[in-house]
Amino acid sequence: MANWQELIPSTRAYLMDKVLYQLHHNDDHLEAYKVDADAYLARFNLPADLVRCIKGNDVAKMYLSGVNPYLLRAHCIGMKIPEDVSLAALRSLLTRKEYNNG
């Protein structure tokens, strides 16, 4: 199973990586996000579907959008998404025929 739908990471993947990196690696960014997620995400001029993906903590969609797995893990930890929940989201992708080699 691959998380990128293209041969190289897309612009969308880059944007998601940029947001998650800044959110979890710069002082006060996570707090700013928690205070007003819409205002924080507006800085990045993301497409609406990626904003919904981040705000909804949709781990599976973030993975499929090409997010770096280490940044996705940092996001799950920073947002206090329980490990069993994040792993279940990723495992759910294995049951999709289009992402399964079998």
The radius of gyration is: 14 Å
- CATH fold assignment: Protocatechuate 4,5-dioxygenase, Chain A
Q: What is the overall silhouette?
A: globular
Overall structural class, as computed from helix and strand content, comes to: mainly alpha
Low-confidence stretches: none
Q: Kindly report the oligomeric state of this protein.
A: single chain
Q: Main beta sheet: strand number and arrangement? A: none
Task: Give the SSE layout.
Elements: H1 11-25, H2 29-35, H3 37-42, H4 48-55, H5 59-64, H6 69-78, H7 83-92
Helix pairs in contact: 1-6
Note down, in words, how this protein is organized.
- Helix 1 (11-25) packs across helix 6.
- The chain has one domain (11-99): Protocatechuate 4,5-dioxygenase, Chain A, CATH 1.10.700.
- The longest helix has 15 residues, at 11-25.
- The chain contains 7 helices and no strands.
- By secondary structure, it is an all-alpha fold.
- The model has no long low-confidence stretch (mean pLDDT 88).
Keywords summarizing the entry:
mainly alpha, 102 residues, Protocatechuate 4,5-dioxygenase, Chain A
Brief overview:
With 102 residues, this protein is mainly alpha-helical.
